[in-house]
Each structure stands twice: as structure tokens, then as C-alpha cells.
Amino acid sequence: MKISITPVFVALVFVFCIAITRRARSHGSINTAEARSVYVLILVFWVWTLIAVGLGIRETHLALMSRVPLLWQALVPVVLLLIAFAFSGNLRRGLRGIARSTPGHWFVFFQAFRIGALGGIMKGMRGEITSMFFFWVGVPDFLFGLSALVVGWLLLRKAVSPGFLIVWNLLGFLLIFLPTFVPMNYWMNEPGFSFIFEYPMVLAPSIIVPTFISLNLLHAWGVLLNQKEKRK
User: What is the pTM of this model?
Assistant: First the structure.
């Protein structure tokens, strides 16, 4: 098994999600039932992460690459979230409360961890990763992480407008989504792309990246909701 900080990022995303849920509950922004529904979703994501780890250790992700021409690992947590969101009112209200009550700079500074994409960029520059995925996705991801430090600093000084935050978060989502899934057929046929299915790297598309871009959307939603409330 290769030494990697990827498992550290897995821990970070779960700790952060639990932290913002606990904060929302302690501040009365969500009730016990709503908090419980969010914790259940986090637990489901944790179970999926353990499954992804097991498949990775057995190299099943690599074995399935030729039979499933899609980065399906990234779709699993998204589909689970959409199903839970559609069928659980408590979850919808819980996420809404978290989105509205979590301090904006918490969301923004958390996105700064995307600077961790620098590791993949350096491997690409050294030739350890031959896929151009590190350039088209890794470089924008890294730059977005850097921008989070600036945006967070400006936000603390109230020098950022709500509209800018919404656009910035949507950009953070699109910088990953578009270059990953629009040319998916190209990536799946690129010889070097198999690196993304190797363990522990496969944990990035399995849970880390979907969580980061979901938090982009959650923050944008919260800003929009708060702006609508102020206009009433």
C-alpha cells in the first residue's frame, strides 16, 4: 500500500461534517430529529467509505475499470444524498438549518484544504502520474484552495458580498464537475487514468471530492436562503 495523506482528508471531511451538525444543534438551528437524520446520513457515508476501502485493498476498483467505463465511485455518495434528501423531511430541514447557521468563514476556510491537490500536481510533474487529469482538474482545484484563504480573510473583514460567495462556491463545484464528467469517455480511455482507481487514491473520488463540492453547494444554498430572509 502506498503512503498517502488521502486517509487524513477522509477523516477531515467527517470531522467537519459532524462539527457543523453539532454546532447547529447546540445553537438551536436544528432540532434533535433533524440532527439525527444528518448523523444517519454521515453514518451511511462512513459505511460506503469502508466499502470503498475494502474494494480498494482488493484492487476491485481497478478490476472494474474496464467493465464500468465511468468514475462511478463519485456517484455513489451523490445518489445516496439525493435519495435521502428527496425522502426525508428531517434531513432537508436539518441541512437547511446547517447551511443557514454555520459561519461562512467555516465553509470557506475548509475549502482551503483543496490545496492538498498540490501533491497530485507534483507527482504529475515528476512523471509519477502520466494522466493529464492532474493538470485539468488538480491545478484548478489547487488554485481554488488558495483562493479560499483570500476569500476567508476578506469574509472575516466583511469585504465579500453574498452574491460573490454564491458565485465562488458554484465555481468551486464546476471546477471539479465539468472537467471530470463532461470528458469522462476520454479519461476512461486514457492509459494513465488508472491511477485514480488505485488505493488509497480512489478514496478521493469516493468520498473526499464529493463532500467538498457538496459543501460548496450547501454554503451557496445557505447564503441564498439568508439573503431571501433579509428581503422579507
Answer: 0.95
